[in-house]
Write a structure and sequence with these properties.
Strand content: 15-25%
Structural class: alpha/beta
Order of helices and strands: EHEHEEHEEEEH
CATH class: Alpha Beta
Largest sheet: 6 strands, parallel
Number of domains: 1
Number of strands: 8
Radius of gyration: 18 Å
CATH architecture: 3-Layer(aba) Sandwich
Distance between the termini: 11 Å
Shape: globular
Length: about 160
């Protein structure tokens, strides 16, 4: 599987770019999966639901299945957070895995950047960032795309990974 990341500070446009890239790349006939890193505790379940009650009772894993999808929830409890490599190994094979976050890992990435956030560019100090998708013109030693030019960003990523 090919892997490519989308990184950036909070409110830089990462999730919107990810959403548009998934739609554009799958429209072109490629299979895509995503991994999203969260810096906070999150829950995909809700109090009162049976699966939530199973986890609250102490189940280590709860697999929820229907005819439309299945989801496996794994409680880490006393375990360390799994590495990106560990998580990638759990995915079914696809043409491309787009990873949102994991900015400190060494895989190739594009940075989403919005000037209004006031945050510094990550690309200036991180060689794993191969391009920037920005809402403002930038002079950098790597390609810079308009943040809303999904076609150009998708072309770049697919060329980078050889698809």
């Amino acid at each position: 599987m090919k892997i490519y990341g989308v990184v950036g500070w909070k409110n830089a446009g990462k999730t919107g770019l990810m959403e548009r890239l998934v739609a554009e790349i799958t429209r072109r006939g490629f299979t895509v999966s995503t991994i999203k890193h969260a810096h906070h505790s999150f829950d995909v379940d809700h109090p009162g639901k049976d699966s939530y009650r199973h986890r609250a009772a102490g189940a280590r894993e709860v697999l929820l299945a229907s005819r439309n999808r299945w989801a496996l929830m794994h409680e880490l409890t006393d375990e360390d957070e799994p590495s990106l490599a560990d998580l990638l190994a759990k995915l079914s094979p696809v043409d491309l895995v787009l990873v949102e976050g994991y900015k400190r890992d060494g895989h190739a990435k594009i940075e989403a950047y919005r000037a209004a956030t006031g945050n510094p560019l990550i690309a200036t100090t991180d060689n794993s960032i191969r391009a920037v998708a920005s809402d403002t013109a930038l002079e950098l030693d790597c390609p810079v795309f308009d943040l809303d030019d999904t076609t150009a960003v998708a072309d770049f990523i697919l060329a980078e990974v050889g698809l």
